[in-house]
Amino acid sequence: MNEWLGRQVAIPKSELPTVDDDAMVVREALDLKTGQCQRCGTLFSKKEQLLPSGKYYCGACVQFGRLTSEEFLVSKQETTIQKREVLLTWQGKLTPPQQAVADHLLENQQHTMIWAVTGAGKTEMIFPIIQQVLSLGGRVGVTSPRIDVCRELFPRIHQAFPKEKTLLLYGASEEKYRYSKLTVCTTHQLIHFYQAFDLLIVDEIDAFPYEGNPQLRFAVSQAIKPNGRYIYLTATPPQQLIAEIQEEFAIEQLPIRYHQRPLIVPELHWYEHWASCYQRKWHLRKLIRLLNELLKANAVLVFCPSIAYMKKVYAAVKQYFATGEVACVSSQDEHREAKVQAMRDKSYRVLFTTTILERGVTFEHVSVIIMGANHPVYTKSALVQISGRVDRKGAFNHGRVIFFLNQQTVAIRKACQEIKEMNHLAKRWRKDAL
Ligand SMILES: [Zn+2]
């Protein structure tokens, strides 16, 4: 029965455990009174979701295995909570502002949202609270809507807590479920947990596909124990999220980057023909000229609003460079991880990409160009996140952020405004600290 420990599994009535065990929680998978699926929270229609056998099913979470009204959700709760020694080997030092946030997390025992600028070092700040909860015998989940973010978080957490048997779970992850006190997983995977975590840390809470996805929200709400606690991490909280949580959550703002330098403010460049620049040499000239200028100091990430567009511009631009200097990567690319690593290793000078690299990834010494920053795919958050890729790590290297546009948009205006405001706030903090 240990396969049920600490998560929830759907099983048919005939396989329900017969032993009397207080730790076992058994719930009907579909609540016929409320018409709600208990795994994903979606309301099902008794008319439309009726099977020939007379059972109902949930059409919303079939990707996790079809759930019918004949089934039950079974989970075995933890019964023994034991205090223990938890080894944290992270050797770095938190900056005073980071330390202040980390201390508040240890003291306030409240749901908290950490609103920290890109490159503030959010992960390091959560190490002490993870250690505290684990030491008290609790169970911790660290989750993010994006697989790339989970993959990047896992090795850092594993390294900091080497004695924990940390589990990494995502759709196609190599390891399958096993009970663990420390779990890193995508928010999608939370659908398999019921009242499991004492502390649930949601990184990049504002990232697609969590934002506006009621299923994932339901999964997040079901995954923590009744007296469990949330920590949300974000660099770009939507106004709506702030309004929603501000009564229950403490909000910790951290406007200063780890290295204490300000965020790079985007430079707006008018580019009339950005959308068709690959068709004519003289339209492409503006991009080539700027690339060469930026390349004197840094490698360049060029963000494109769609994969089709990216491929065309990439094909046109690579003719101006030596073989292998320019590459492109998108979500459809099977060599995605290898290419991102090659960019980190400085194998490429220019990497064309889509919004997949908008967040959660760190490159040293890059500048950024956004082709068509006025395109609707770029929300304010996306623009702030992409700008935040520059000057995250290492010594200052004159990284620049260029927005190419042929129309001014609200998102562009608000993104620039937010970046400037954060820099202003950071300046005040630094003054106060002196
Ligand atoms: Zn469902």
Automatic annotation (TrEMBL):
Keyword Acyltransferase carried by entry: no
Annotated PROSITE patterns: GATA_ZN_FINGER_2 (PS50114), HELICASE_ATP_BIND_1 (PS51192), HELICASE_CTER (PS51194)
Domain GATA-type: 36-84
GO terms classed as biological process: DNA recombination; DNA replication initiation; double-strand break repair; regulation of DNA-templated transcription
CDD domains recorded: SF2_C (cd18785)
One Gene Ontology molecular-function label: 3'-5' DNA helicase activity
Pfam families on file: DEAD (PF00270), Helicase_C (PF00271)
Top-rank taxon: Bacteria
Keyword Disulfide bond assigned: no
Domain Helicase C-terminal: 286-434
Domain called Helicase ATP-binding: residue spans: 103-255
Keywords of the record: ATP-binding, DNA-binding, Nucleotide-binding
Name of the protein: Competence protein ComFA
The species this protein was found in: Enterococcus saccharolyticus subsp. saccharolyticus ATCC 43076
Native organism taxonomy: Bacteria, Bacillati, Bacillota, Bacilli, Lactobacillales
